Amino acid sequence: MTCKYPITSRSYKFCIGCSDIDCCKDAVTPIISMPKFQSPKNVIPSASEANKMTNNAIDNCTTQQLAELSKLIRDAIADGKFSISEDGCLKLETRKKLEEFGYKVETGNQYNESYYSISWRETK
């Protein structure tokens, strides 16, 4: 069987929409190429990679929190204050860095809300 539609028809050799596709000798089946499947690489990082990634995340969080605290401390200095107190938590690494820089850091919890205080007044 040849294409049942006339050459001038829009349906001529539109085989996908034709019910006679399996018996038509003029059938033109479009070739659909599928993209090659590639299995995802590194679905789970190795333990050493995970360790490095975690340390980088800790460093980035610490750096970000220190930058935020730096602004608060500078604003307090401009206002003639020797300490800041804020609601929230300090990351352990941030606290260690502040103490290395000579700041006195106190943290607490009241009514299930965390807070911290950072001071830089020297006692003589």
How would you describe the overall organization of this protein?
The chain has two helices and three strands, in the order αβαββ. It has a domain at 49-119: Ribosomal Protein S8, Chain: A, domain 1 (2-Layer Sandwich). 33% of the residues lie in helices and 15% in strands. The chain starts with 46 loop residues before the first helix and ends in a 5-residue tail after the last strand. It has 124 residues and is α+β, with helices and mostly antiparallel strands. The longest helix has 32 residues, at 47-78. It has a three-stranded antiparallel β-sheet with strand order 1-3-2. The mean pLDDT is 82.
CATH architecture of the domain at 49-119: 2-Layer Sandwich
Which sheet architecture does the biggest sheet show?
3 strands, antiparallel
Beta-strand content estimate = 15-25%
- The N- to C-terminal Cα distance equals 106 Å
Query: How many individual helices?
Result: 2
Query: What is the name of the CATH topology of the domain at 49-119?
Result: Ribosomal Protein S8, Chain: A, domain 1
CATH hierarchy, class of the domain at 49-119: Alpha Beta
Helical amount among residues, as a percent range? Answer: 25-40%
Question: N-to-C SSE series?
Answer: HEHEE
Low-confidence stretches: none
Concise summary:
The protein has 124 residues and is an alpha+beta fold. It has two helices and three strands; from the N terminus they run αβαββ.
